[in-house]
Amino acid sequence: MDKERLSAILNTVASGDMSTDEALELLRHLPYDDLGFAKLDSHRSLRQGIPEVIFCPGKTALQVVEILQRLKQNHKLVLASRATPELAATVLCQIPDAVYHELGKMIIYGALPVPDESLLVVAVVTAGTADLPVAEEAALVLQSQAVPVIRLSDVGVAGLHRLLNNLEMLRKASVVIVVAGMDGALPSVVGGLLEAPVIAVPSSVGYGASFQGLAALLTMLNSCAAGLTVCNIDNGFGAAVAAVKIVKAVNTGLRSRS
After folding, report:
1. Domain for residue 258, yes or no?
2. Band of the pLDDT at 20, cuts 50, 70, 90?
3. Choice among 23-27, 192-196, 220-224 with the minimum mean pLDDT
C-alpha cells in the first residue's frame, strides 16, 4: 500500500463515495499480508518511503508469482531482484505484463516512472564492464523511485584517464554510487575528487585472491577518502536505497524551507 494509493482511499472516504467498511476492507492486510510461506510488508513504503522488493534467490518461481500477484493489487510498480533467466521466464508466463531486465536481473511489473527533474541526480559508476549487473540493479531501483540517473561504465583505475575525461558529467550528480571488484580502488579515487556523497559497492568480480569480493570490500572499508559509505558485496539494491533516502531527505528539506 503506497502513499498514493492510501491517499486515494482516504479522499474517497472523505468525499462520501466510499464507506468506512469498504475502506477497512481495502486496508485489512495492514500491517502485513500472510501468505503462509511469506508475510508481505504491505505498507513498508509508508514507513520507509520504498515498497517491499521481492528477493528471488531461495524462492520458487511459483512463490515469486504469488507474491508478485498479491503485491500488484496495491502497488502500481513491483520489483523482483536477482531473478535468473529461467525463473523470469516462468514468472512472465504467469504475469505477461511484467518485464525482465536481464542485465540487472530484475523483474519489473508496471511502468518505470519518468525521472522527476525536481530530485537530485544520482550517478552509477562501474570500474569495469563486469560490474554492470550490480550497477544496473542499482540504476533500476533508482529509476523505480523517479530519481534521475547518470550511468558511467568501465572507468576503473587501470585506465584512470577514462574517469578524468568524465569528471564534468560526474560533478552534475549529487550522490555517486561506485561499483568495483578486483582491487576495489575506484570508490576511493572518486571520493577524493568529488564533493558529493559516494556510496561504494564491492563486486564479486576478480581472480582467486579477490575472495569473491572480500578484497574489494576490505579496500573500501579502509579507504583514505573520508566519508565513503560502503555496502555489502554485490549489494546494488542496498546502495540504491541509501541514495534514494538521501535524495528524498534533501528534497523534503528543500520543500519545508520554501
Report:
1. no
2. confident
3. 23-27
Quote the CA–CA distance of 13 and 146 in Å, as a whole number. Answer: 29
**Inter-residue contact 176 to 194 (CB < 8 Å):** yes
Phi, psi angle pair for 140, to nearest 5°: -70, -40
Looking at the structure, tell me whether residues 104 and 136 fall in a common domain. Answer: no
The pLDDT tens digits for 118-167 are 999 999 999 999 999 999 999 999 999 999 999 999 999 999 999 999 99
Q: State whether 184 and 74 are in the same domain.
A: no
> Looking at the structure, do residues 132 and 236 belong to the same domain, yes or no?
yes
Residue 248 lies in a domain: yes
Within a domain: residue 115? no
Output the pTM of the full model.
0.85
Q: Shortest CA distance to 175 belongs to which of 113, 244, 256, 221?
A: 244
Task: Sort residue 146 into left (φ over 0), alpha (ψ -120 to 50) or beta.
Answer: left
Question: In sequence order, which residues have a C-beta less than 8 Å from that of residue 229 and are 6 or more positions away?
Answer: 197, 198, 199, 200, 242
| 85: in domain | yes
